[in-house]
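Budget justification, computational time. The allocation requested in the original proposal was used primarily to generate structure tokens for proteins on the priority list. As evidence of use, we reproduce two of the resulting records. The first is shown immediately below.
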Amino acid sequence: MYGKSYSACLYGVDGVIVEVEIDITNGLPQTTIIGLPDSAIRESTDRVKAALKNCGFRFPNRRVTINLAPADLRKEGSALDLAIALGILLTDGQLQLPQGKKLIAVGELSLDGSLRPVPGVLAMADCARRQGFDCMLIAAENADEACLVEGLTVYALPNLKQLVPETQRAELLAGVEKRYDFDAEGLSYSQPNWALSSTISNGDDLDYADVLGQEHAKRALTIAATGMHNILLSGPPGTGKTMLIKRLPGIMTELSENEALEATKILSAAGRLSQVRSGLIRRRPFRAPHHTISPSGLAGGGSIPRPGEVSLAHKGVLFLDELPEFSRGALEVLRQPLEDRNVTISRARASFSFPAHFMLACSMNPCPCGGKRDENGQSTCSCSPPTILRYQNRISGPLLDRIDMQVEVPQPSAHQLAQPGASSATLRDKVNSASERQQARYRALSIQYNSELSGARLRKYADPGREAQLLLESAIEAMGLSMRSRDRILKLALTIADLEDCSQIRAEHIAEALQYRQMDRNQF
């Protein structure tokens, strides 16, 4: 007897449909799984056998061959348990599918038949919808996550006992709780009220009004948030560098529908979606790893590659506090994602690509001692010039070249501390207005932000006036800037022009963009 069921597994952060083919023939009792299964899938034979017997079903006392197609794709994890169990029941005639239903089953089985949640369900559900599946049978804990994908009927199955047939052959989905479905006409759908809610709190109570002074740094962060430009704040301890960057997500635009789905799928694949209160995340991710993080922890990897911090920060902010304290190896792995906006991890049997389009926000002290100052504000730093140079050289030139803005954050004066500062709401309004101009400009393109411009697009949209062009050329010659730095200055000047509601880059926009190349200027 031959039968088939469908399931899905993760491939990087994307879902892949797996056909579970079952063949039951006469012969000595033996169960074989083929199709490049990992150890967790090979062990599913014992889990499925015990679960079926403990739920009142019978496991065929014959030769059972299970093929996982496509056979050349390595399958990992325990998400195929439920599909294997259903495939055996369907093939053995103990259950039958409803007519006209194309069903996918995802979940890990316990020995008593209860279903356990698995990571990556959102990506699997999205893949199933695109592949034309009608409904999804899943663990109850994963049901709300699958409900985020429109167009699937989601059935929550706490335990296989709910499928015990009252007759010889029972319909598979009879009596199983339906969580989500289109109406009869297919024009509208019901979904949980929280499906459009926000993400886990990323500092909702943090406001730039709490940071006294530092209006120059706030202006730089506003520009960075508008165009998704990388930024580095440098200054002595206690000047507010960390406070400024932690408030950055509060002035950025909300994630669009597609961005929210991408970011939530990555959290789901990493098994971190439980950190979100509910629904698709709407506020941009903010990740701040410790400086002891390994290169694989930052970029992703492992024997079974999983997303790293750069992917968890996709469409958001990756904050590296005290940048020179990170290992050289960890910092150098940032070069590819900063340029290509994805991370490629190759293994012997496969190559995985993780999205990593993030804004890099960093902070650092000017020297190892932090540039200490006395009560009068005078520097008491005892670091020698070679010591300072070695400290700053922990950041390689190629990495520094990929940071658009390098801003000095000095100790504010008493007069600046007494002045009221701009609030997050005010800065957010400016960012939203400039972002609308960007979206209108790139509506027909595959990009959203000025920082994504390159090649012919950069020459088309970031075309400075004659006076601005002369200023840029003279600055490049005087400062010895690379061509990459030149392009980043142009993109930065375009963002400044958007904030000022100017249709063309002017000399003052180039001048402001040049002043944010702080560490380039310090070399001359």
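The second record produced under the same allocation is shown here.
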Amino acid sequence: MTAISRRSILTGTAATMGAAALATPSLGQGADPRPVVTVAVQRIATSNTLDIINEASNVGTRHFNLYKEMLIDTDWIGDLSLRPGLAESYRRIDGRTMEFKLRPGVKFHNGDTLTAEDVAYSFGERMFGTAAEQAAQPGAPRDPRWAPVKVRAGARNAYPAIETIEIVDAHTIRFVNKVPDLTLEGRISMRTGAIINARAARAAATYAEFWTRPVGTGPYMVADYKTEQTLTLRAFDEYWGGRPPIRELRFVEVPELTSRINGLKAGEFDFICDVTPDQIETIEAEKRFDVRGGIITNIRVLEFDVHHAQLRDPRVRRALSIAIDRKAIVDSIWGGRTTVPKGLQFEFFGQMYLPEWTGPAYDPAEARRLLAAAGYKGEVIPYKLVKDYYTNQVATAQIMVEMWKQVGLNVDLQIVENWGAVQKKDETRAILDDSVSAFFNDPVSYVPTNYGANGGLATNGYWSNAEAFKAVEVIQSSVDPAARRAAHLRLLEIIERDDPATMVLNQTANFTAARRDTKWVPAKSFVMDFRSRNFSRG
């Protein structure tokens, strides 16, 4: 159970308790010279909420940091280093304890001042429930405002060992872990740790009431959210990082790329997301526009449900992997603008990067041999996907189906309406599209969430492997760099070769088209930054 203690009484919060309404910009819209900017996206959210733990998606990652922030920030448009965020400083007291000094005078969108109480709420009650809930027996009633299973699971994976959250004073807070953790700074920097206003959250009648209009500290506040249509953000002029450069920022859901491109040319949109490489030259032929972006900290993968009749034998899953010529896909539909990584890992991991691991190589002859040894006789293997959630998704899938056919694999490509249809547990769940993002420079940023005992594949009934789970535990808990590297290598061997849970395709390249007169740098992530440091026009 995560305990919260207070060593001193918080001061300065009572004066803000009457500020119930969202703060408004200091200038009326008619007098405000800042632009209204519209961003066309293929999807705003998959969960119909703005709770990034529940949402936990690439599309939700685009905008979440515009209205809520973390204690530790990441330089997404620079070198990916960690830097102070809502905490102006932080330090290690010992291997288990970190102390954070909050920036003074940071305002929430409802006018409240950020205090350690908000941080304690965001990392404690909001994620794990009240003390009474945490102490209750399994199956006991939970507060319906904060009960989504995905939120609790996401919190457990991100912060499995936080023992105590200690409020020292109004602007000082300490996190005490049960065990030493080399990656605690990175964990705190993850999107899971976004800080929200405790008073507003506690006052909300329902989960949806708060999470369709969350109260955070970001440069923009949520003005309106219409699920599967629009998200409208308004400048928050009391933002601690300086007055936002955009008066109103609108995210509009436009599923088809052709419609996004036409809207850009017609002046309806200022930015359009998820541009495919084959459209870059066409867009840039008009001198008013250019396309920006490149490789980001995300890898496209396929995941396997090992309980499907045709995938129980790991040799069939391995054959599916080595029958794919990944470089041919990168060179053709990606125009060489991305790369095939050395397995499920990122180069910016530093000493945890394993250059000796290359992942399964293209080998159609070996794929045929494995299929014969497994006794596979051409039975149908379903492959379900949501159309073009990922860039080049359908085109990639169609090419792979043909490559699989060449070695005798009978994969049935099925395009479905939503993620619920993809994930529905029945006899048609076999291969599904996915991606894996690194949110800081260590495998801990995604390994437990995806491949641990409490990760998505295990808890959703896709795959389970006791040895892999032990390797994940070592990666999470060991303070011995050599032991962590060895566990990381063994995990990759298991999930990509011995008992395949996943199949790496390529590192993701993310491209955004914009007006050429706009000064804006894309992130090495799906994050979009529209702070004053990263947006101007003319």
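A brief technical remark on that second record: The first strand starts at residue 3 and ends at 6.
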